Amino acid sequence: MTSVDSLSARLAFLRQTLHAHNYRYHVLDAPDIPDAEYDRLFAELKALEAQHPELITADSPTQRVGGAPLKSFAEITHRHPMLSLGNLFDEAGLQAFVTRMEKELADLGYPQGEPLQFCCEPKLDGLAVSLIYEQGVLVQGVTRGDGQKGEGITENLKTVGSIPLRLNPLPDQVMPTRLEVRGEVYMTRSAFETMNQRARDEGSKVFANPRNAAAGSLRQLDPKITATRPLMFTAYQLVEMEGVPVAATHDQAMQQLKQLGFRISEEIACVTGYAGLKHYCDQLLQKRDGLPYDIDGAVLKLNDRRWQAELGFRAREPRWATAFKYPAQEAMTQLLDVEFQVGRTGAVTPVARLEPVAVSGVTVSNATLHNMDEVARLGVEIGDWVILRRAGDVIPQIVQVVMSKRPATTQMIKAPSHCPVCQSLVERAEGEAVLRCSGGLYCAAQRKEALKHFASRKAMDIEGLGDKLIDQLVERDLVHTPADLYRLTFDDLVGLERMGPKSAENLLQALEKSKQTQLARFIYALGIREVGEATAASLAQYFGHFQALREADETTLRGIDDIGPVVAQHLLSFFAEPHNLETLDDLIQQGVHWPEVHRRREDLPLVGQTWVLTGSLESLTRDQAKARLEALGAKVAGSVSKKTTCLVAGSAAGSKLTKAESLGVEVIDEAALLAQLAALETAQT
Ligand code: I6G
């Protein structure tokens, strides 16, 4: 073999290997090499191509990084018009859709009495694009535009990791000679939040929602900018495939697309008739907040492609498909006032009081404004009309001011100089956006919040000690520190509002019961800044003894997984504060205790195991389950692969369960998880 041959072979090997890893990562959600190894192969390919630019191919993984900036986008005529979908909003509309289709199909000769099969999927809230492949290589990517003509954004789309530059062959090594596939480019909510947070920190452009972010990213003339944006592509329609027969049904065609290398929705399901459609739409709406991306509805398609073709199109919509729309995630309302709330750590946060408005099915009258930098960035004033967004599990947010509707008499929002609760000075630390009350535990608001956190379910779990009760205990000066809770007497309690003798008795018992706790819970209950459940679990697992944590220096803390410089500093400051040390001693004096053991990580029972959690758990949150598994030494991963030891499937588990079953991975339910955790934790103590 000549050196040219061996170079070509190495280039082909690197491209094929990187391509296969891309597919595993983006489509199967099951990477099987570490990122560093991928990066090493990529760097080798890049170096070889730099030495031999004449050997670069259009489908090389290096071609994703973004080519030269364009002057403008070319106008491209769609070979098949890019239609839109009709919309349905309620049961009556859905019923009418099915009845109309039954009638039209009957007129076309559809067998009488044969129930209609539909294929359903979420309607992702992004930007529709059409991709064209020739001989398996991506040659063109176009926006929808007006449906007839769109903009050529091929270079930008090439930077999207989940768009294959080259297709995988179908079984028997067949490759379509031409393929046109359509799908949605979008951002997951978490990628969007991370990107926006970085933009806020850097003072660059912040987007109102993931959809605008995806659209803005694709409209960049410089593909290098697009390459930095966390975009995803999910295919939703196989429009045309030459050289290979297209499957008879839509769901099978989607499987063909998956084999060819495209990501398809994990929520695709085939259903029968009106009842099946209704059930799917209801279920998906229930799942909506928990999905990692925004959806604005469900897409419902007749599954049989032959009957789709018979039905054809009406105006600019297919007759065989429609969108069942869900309540919008954004709404316009008026900002009535801004109040400043003091949190557990003294953060003074502006909270928007709004004219109540329905957003994604819920009436919202308050929204966070985060901090004064955010108020300035939005340019919002009291009296303004604003766009409110409520998506996923996050607190509703104001994302934009409708300047065109600004009333003549708006009022500036001013940061308070003194705490609205205790009148201490409000400070802003250098480099921080957050305002803080300097009152510490003198401030009743901070005291109340600290006590609420201490008593909460994931912390000391003091049953019956609700927010209203804590407010009264603080306002009547009965409790200053968490340790004071354990000194409360029957007489203290019966005097409180809505507290009868029985409730007082129960609360005293709950306080007594809470004294026996676990180290991780106790650490979490202390409310140290940025020490959440998972960090508390890591600390408990690492130190085993509370005293060791209390005395740890910075070097030791920084040596622990998950502990960065900021958290280490918060821990050091907390344990350097004499008042905190007094309270800790006092709590222990009052009888708070937990089993302590010295352990080495290697001795933990789940070391070397990888667990995955999916579906909804009822008796504990995912974070709690994760923290407890990690405390026993397990690694908790986000996706199932052949390396997964066990999948915990809660209710409504979806594709991860199917995948685990196909890979022969052990699957257990919530009850079995709880039993295993209890047994292993007991064995540890
Ligand atoms: O499955 C789909 C998802 C989204 C679609 C679709 C869509 O538009 C944003 N549009 C059409 C025309 C079809 N399926 C057939």
Notes on the protein architecture:
The strands form six sheets. Strands 14, 15, 16, 17, 18, 19 and 20 form a seven-stranded antiparallel β-sheet that branches. Strands 2-13-10-3-9 form a five-stranded mixed β-sheet, sandwiched between helices. The protein has a four-stranded antiparallel β-sheet with strand order 5-4-7-8. 38% of the residues lie in helices and 20% in strands. By secondary structure, it is of the alpha+beta class. The chain folds into six domains: 3-65, Helix Hairpins (Orthogonal Bundle), CATH 1.10.287; 95-325, D-amino Acid Aminotransferase, Chain A, domain 1 (2-Layer Sandwich), CATH 3.30.470; 330-426, Beta Barrel (OB fold (Dihydrolipoamide Acetyltransferase, E2P)); 440-514, 5' to 3' exonuclease, C-terminal subdomain (DNA polymerase, domain 1), CATH 1.10.150.20; 519-589, 5' to 3' exonuclease, C-terminal subdomain (DNA polymerase, domain 1, Orthogonal Bundle); 604-684, BRCT domain (Rossmann fold), CATH 3.40.50. The protein is globular and about 85 Å long. The longest helix has 24 residues, at 3-26. Helix 24 links the parallel strand 23 and strand 24. Bound molecules: 8-methoxy-2,3-dimethylquinoxalin-5-ol (I6G). 8-methoxy-2,3-dimethylquinoxalin-5-ol binds next to strand 8.
Which SSEs are present, and which pair or pack?
Layout: H1 3-26, H2 35-51, E1 75-77, E2 86-88, H3 91-107, E3 117-124, E4 127-134, E5 137-143, E6 149-151, H4 154-158, E7 178-186, H5 189-202, H6 210-218, H7 223-227, E8 232-242, H8 250-260, E9 269-272, H9 273-287, E10 295-302, H10 305-311, E11 313-314, E12 317-318, E13 321-325, E14 330-342, E15 347-359, E16 362-368, H11 372-378, E17 385-389, E18 397-401, E19 426-428, E20 435-437, H12 444-455, H13 467-475, H14 482-485, H15 490-494, H16 501-514, H17 519-525, H18 533-543, H19 546-551, H20 554-558, H21 565-576, H22 578-589, E21 610-614, H23 622-631, E22 635-637, E23 646-649, H24 655-663, E24 666-668, H25 670-684
Parallel strand pairs: 2-13, 21-22, 21-23, 23-24
Antiparallel strand pairs: 1-6, 3-9, 3-10, 4-5, 4-7, 7-8, 10-13, 11-12, 14-15, 14-17, 15-16, 15-20, 17-18, 19-20
The chain binds 8-methoxy-2,3-dimethylquinoxalin-5-ol.
8-methoxy-2,3-dimethylquinoxalin-5-ol binds at residues 83, 85, 123, 128, 236-237, 299, 318, 321.
